Amino acid sequence: MFTTLSPVTTVPTHDLVDAINALKQELNAVVLAHYYQESEIQDVADYIGDSLGLSRQAADTSADVIVFAGVHFMAETAKILNPEKQVLLPDLDAGCSLADSCPPAAFEAFKAAHPDHLVISYINCTAAIKAMSDIICTSSNAVSIVKQLPADQKIIFAPDQNLGRYVMQQTGRDMLLWQGSCMVHETFSEKKLVQLQMNHPHAEVIAHPECEAAVLRHAHFVGSTTALLKHAQQSPKAEFIVVTEPGIIHQMEKQAPGKVFIPAPPTASCACNECPHMRLNTLEKLYLAMKHRQPEIVLAPELQRQALKPIQRMLDLSTP
User: Fold this and answer.
1) Distance of CA 57 to CAs 48, 133, 182, Å?
2) Which helix (H) or strand (E) holds 227?
3) Is 291 helix (H, G, I), strand (E, B) or coil?
4) How far is CA 175 from CA 17, 123, 170, 187, 244, in A?
């Protein structure tokens, strides 16, 4: 385990961007960033995407070094797909409340109690949970994957209960849900959302399926971060209330100029709809990670092999 390096706070942003771009060439490195990263990181990334898109990029990259601007489980996934390559995460403390809500020992006992169930795990889980799963899914492909399974197949869906309920609603399948959730997507206030709709009667509400059912029922469109972005581009509407982590709004404003994007409010009077784990990564930490080639993600070879199987099955079942 590496100690998180202290950020460089005196270097101008443009100098950091230049230094990062130079290190990309020197290391033959690729920077992958999730939509929920701060805008400066998104702008320096080689690829920006959701979990499915980032998994595909990690699987296909020819880079020697993968710098993952996201959270720990995402960098783990990149390492699982690239066991011989170096995978760096700017801040090792960038975890995930959803992944933490599914402890491996407890899930192992849960799985053992239902031996006739196939395990589908949302990619927002640890490598240990992936290794216990039959198929991994993302919010982009969860509905499609479940629809491809035999109608009589019993399914455990973990760890996100909100996404699981949404998949059940969309597929008509009954699944056994692990009771995990994302702290960011559970913080949105239904009451405040309704008030915001009253103030913006022409706005379209677009939401991520990790949100609670009470919030999703007010959405005009539900989808993964990539689906939300595409919908915002293609919709004739000019105003949107965005019910997911507001980092995605940076890309929405870039790809749908002239449209208005309003972040949905959390229950408390705080920035609780921003993921505190995602925001641990900064441009300074990204530069330092590349300069020192640490913190590095290291996984046991057998764990990598076991976790690769359900990820590969997901990629095989997903349409391009």
Assistant:
1) 10, 22, 24
2) helix 225-234
3) helix
4) 46, 17, 12, 25, 25
Residue 2, number of CB atoms within 10 A of its CB:
13
Cis peptide before 295 (omega within 30 of 0): yes
Token pair of 101 as six digits: 């809500």
Q: Where are the alpha helices (DSSP H) in 82-212?
A: 97-100, 104-112, 127-131, 142-147, 161-171, 190-199
Query: Residue 67 in contact with residue 21, Cβ under 8 Å?
Result: no
Structure tokens at 96: 């995930």
Contact 34, 48 (CB under 8 A): yes
- The whole-angstrom separation of Cα 228 and Cα 243 is 10
pLDDT tens digits along 45-64: 999 998 878 888 988 999 99
CA–CA dist 8, 149 (Å, integer): 50
pTM (predicted TM-score): 0.89
What is the C-alpha separation between 23 and 260, in angstroms, rounded? 36
Here the tokens at position 253 are: 């404003």
Rounded Cα–Cα distance for residues 241 and 243 (Å)? 6
- The string of pLDDT tens digits covering residues 182-192 is 988 888 999 99
Query: Can you spell out the DSSP letters for 58-110?
Result: HHH---SEEEEES-HHHHHHHHHH-TTSEEE-S-TT---HHHHTS-HHHHHHH
Residue identified by tokens 């320096």 is: 44
Terminal CA-CA length for the chain = 36
How far apart CA 228 and CA 115 sit, in angstroms, is 36
Nearest to 191 by CA among 164, 173, 218: 218
Q: Which two tokens stand for residue 52?
A: 């499915």
CB 55 within 8 A of CB 82: no
